[in-house]
Specification:
GO terms for molecular function: electron transfer activity; FMN binding; metal ion binding; oxidoreductase activity. The chain is an alpha/beta fold. Helices cover 34% and strands 24% of the residues. The chain binds MU-OXO-diiron.
């Protein structure tokens, strides 16, 4: 794929990665892309690079439009190596280019690439004139790393925010209105849940700042996936997700050794469903941690179940728990459950650990020894009903109206 115009004299020159299936633990079932953008003005400017194996593709796309040696500036919005991995090779082909990035980027880059890069720090409020247009910079710490930067092109109404608003979605098309909307929004939500969710407070602040700055955003070019020609769609979704708003939905995620925790999971799910919550049951033998995170994003209730192995939760459940702990999902009611054989302390201890880690949990853990009997299954079902009741209080179906 050659460069694709996204505005007047502005081109996507990145690379599509059809084969990517794991992005630091996030299962990327539809691959991804590493989006870089070339602005051809009186001064020539490249915004972001690509993951290093795709350097040749980036150079090919640039060279079809301009000699790389004519590039005056390279802006690196984010240090993570899926965007800056090609930087040394690109600089070799662009000997006169000055690199612009944040101070945090420079700090990390010295460790990745060594000292001596021709880099100039930028911060919020700084601008760069390319001739007919002037770029504006907005620091965006933690979206996705402390070094992250948004580059805004006011004359074109284009925001290049790197990781924010992205999706891990490889496609032959480059724009949001060229792919099925349901698939696009599913991938955008998966991406938010697995990459952005821990920083929801900062997302909300950034959306507020963008509003205060009255940026005229007509196109958003993220660093992964499709480019938003209808930016209001993803801006509205980010407002919703960053608010932590939930809906009447529950997730029951578990693993099982001999089927007992599975029986508890089914009974809890029955209780949740009977109380009116849309319930997704996710056995971990069939679901990756990132699949669970995506389902958890809008869920009001989550039950996490494990058997006991060697006096600990099963490693697959510990893996999911660690992953979710890092993602810091908010405004949900949690329930721990599981079966045990010889140590009745482990499931309650797991529940306590979850509470101490910040998971909101008002119900006691549901536990059954060896195989749950009829009474224990009934208790699990009742816990599902109670969990649904607790979760319902947290669901905001509509924005609250101001009193007259
Ligand atoms: Fe796409 Fe934080 O890197």
């Amino acid at each position: 794929m050659a460069g694709v115009p996204i505005g007047k004299d502005i081109y996507w020159v990145g690379a599509v990665d059809w084969n990517l299936r794991d992005f630091h633990g996030y299962r990327t079932g539809r691959g991804s892309s590493y989006n870089a953008y070339l602005i051809l003005d009186e001064k020539k400017c490249l915004v972001d690079t690509v993951k290093s194996p795709f350097t040749g593709r980036l150079l090919e796309n640039i060279s079809a439009l301009v000699k790389p040696g004519e590039i005056d500036y390279i802006i690196s919005n984010h240090l993570e190596l899926d965007h800056s991995g090609a930087i040394l090779e690109i600089l070799r082909h662009c000997p006169k280019a000055r690199l612009l990035a944040t101070g945090h980027w420079i700090e990390g880059a010295e460790k990745y690439f060594g000292p001596g890069l021709p880099v100039q720090p930028v911060k919020t409020g700084d601008t760069l004139s390319l001739g007919r247009r002037t770029l504006q910079f907005i620091e965006a710490p933690m979206l996705h790393w402390p070094d992250s930067l948004f580059t805004y092109l006011p004359e074109d109404g284009i925001l290049l925010p790197n990781d924010a608003f992205g999706q891990h979605y490889a496609a032959g098309s480059r724009f949001d209105d060229e792919v099925p909307e349901a698939v696009l929004m599913e991938e955008a939500a998966r991406y938010y849940a697995n990459i952005i969710m821990p920083y929801s407070n900062l997302v909300a602040k950034m959306l507020g700042r963008i509003g205060e700055m009255k940026l005229d955003i007509r196109l958003i070019g993220p660093s992964h996936g499709l480019i938003w020609r209808r930016p209001e769609k993803i801006l509205a979704a980010y407002r919703d997700w960053s608010s932590g708003r939930t809906r009447e939905k529950a997730v029951v995620a578990y693993d099982t050794m001999w089927g007992s925790t599975a029986l508890l999971a089914e009974s809890i799910a029955e209780g949740l469903q009977s109380a009116g919550l849309e319930t997704v049951v996710m056995p971990l033998k069939a679901s990756n941690r990132s699949d669970v995170a995506a389902e958890v994003l809008e869920a009001a209730a989550v039950a996490l179940g494990t058997p006991v192995l060697n006096n600990l939760p099963l490693p697959s459940v510990a893996d999911l728990y660690t992953y979710l702990k890092g993602l810091r999902p908010r405004k949900k009611q949690w329930l721990a459950f599981g079966s045990y054989g010889w140590n009745r302390e482990i499931i309650p201890r797991f529940a306590q650990e979850m509470k101490e880690a910040g998971f909101e949990m008002e119900l006691p853990a549901v536990a059954a020894r060896f195989r749950p009997d009829g009474g224990e299954l009934a208790a699990a079902r009742a816990a599902g009903v109670r969990l649904a009741g607790l979760a319902a209080g947290a669901v905001e179906t509509e924005p609250k109206e101001k009193p007259e």
